[in-house]
Write a structure and sequence with these properties.
- It holds the Pfam family Oxidored_q6.
- Keywords: Oxidoreductase.
- It is a single chain.
- By secondary structure, this protein is α/β, with parallel strands linked by helices.
- The protein has two domains: about 5-150, NADH:ubiquinone oxidoreductase-like, 20kDa subunit (Rossmann fold, 3-Layer(aba) Sandwich), CATH 3.40.50; about 165-260, no CATH class.
- The protein has twelve helices and five strands.
- The chain binds iron/sulfur cluster (SF4) (3 copies).
- One iron/sulfur cluster (SF4) binds next to helix 1 and helix 4.
């Protein structure tokens, strides 16, 4: 039996999700015995040609070059996994979708005419079929290892799409909203991080994006009564998941520019 191949790809991103894979240290050694890492520029300059069994894709699509590259990667990959908020929702850089990217470029760069970029930052799934998504900014290492273990053993990965509240209860953390009036997005945020922020006595700010069927309307008055004004609610709902349709009607932002370019 041939050893499965793993490829890790970077698009527009900060590399933090790839670093999560490198941070797995001991587990990586055992993983290295089960897969052949065929493409992972963050770790090695050695590159093997495709096809690849598993492709982990970090980052969003923000340039014409990336549009072509993600199509080629999809064609060469048996399983494509989008990892992190950039890859699943366009990331923080998708804030450009709500503004004028030319204006941004003129403000930031001395020679903006040299910047070749699309007007939008979009998720990988807006362009090619994605088999699985791992949420988070960055992703959670337990979830990543669980996903790889499942794929390497021919199982479907278990990626719960319930809320952070379920994880909070499971680990026995006292609710920061109920106990201390701290605004928390946990009731609408996708599970997966293990409810890290409430465990450190701070509210969830939604870096895993929306859970399945979030009841955002029910949460808003609770956020407000706990001291989060509407502009902050708009900000927190759009920071990591600008392209999430689940939040669109609550932030009132114009999302027409989320459409992928032709
Ligand atoms: S999701 Fe966050 S940590 Fe991961 S690449 Fe994007 S910005 Fe970095
Ligand atoms: S602290 Fe936040 S995530 Fe935890 S139970 Fe309360 S609202 Fe839910
Ligand atoms: S608690 Fe919320 S903000 Fe904190 S890591 Fe989890 S999803 Fe992200």
């Amino acid at each position: 039996m041939t050893t499965p191949t793993l490829a890790v790809w970077k698009f527009t991103s900060c590399d933090g999700c790839q670093l999560t894979l490198l941070d797995c240290e001991d587990e990586l050694l055992s993983l290295a015995g089960q897969v052949r890492i065929a493409h992972f520029l963050e770790a090695s300059a050695a590159i093997e040609p495709g096809p690849y069994d598993i492709s982990l894709v970090e980052g969003s699509i923000t340039t014409a070059e990336e549009l072509g590259r993600i199509t080629a990667i999809r064609e060469q990959s048996r399983v494509v996994v989008a990892i992190g908020a950039c890859a699943t929702h366009g990331g923080i850089q998708a804030l450009r979708n709500l503004a004028d990217v030319d204006e941004f470029a003129a403000l930031v760069y001395a020679r903006p005419e040299h910047i070749a970029t699309l007007a939008t930052s979009t998720a990988i799934s807006a362009h090619v079929a994605v088999d699985y998504e791992l949420r988070g900014c960055p992703i959670d290492r337990r979830q990543l290892l669980g996903l790889l273990d499942a794929l390497l053993h021919g199982r479907a990965p278990d990626i719960p799409d319930t809320s952070v509240c379920t994880e909070c209860k499971r680990r026995g953390t006292t609710c920061v909203t109920v106990a201390d009036g701290i605004p928390c997005l946990g009731p609408v945020t996708h599970a997966g991080c293990g409810a890290i922020c409430p465990a450190f006595h701070r509210g969830c700010y939604g870096c895993f994006g929306p859970m399945r069927n979030p009841n955002v309307g029910a949460l808003l008055p609770i956020l407000r009564v706990n001291g989060m004004p509407q502009p902050d609610i708009d900000r927190v709902l759009t920071t990591f998941a600008v392209t999430a349709p689940e939040y669109a009607e609550y932030t009132g932002t114009d999302r027409r520019r989320d459409e992928p370019p032709p």
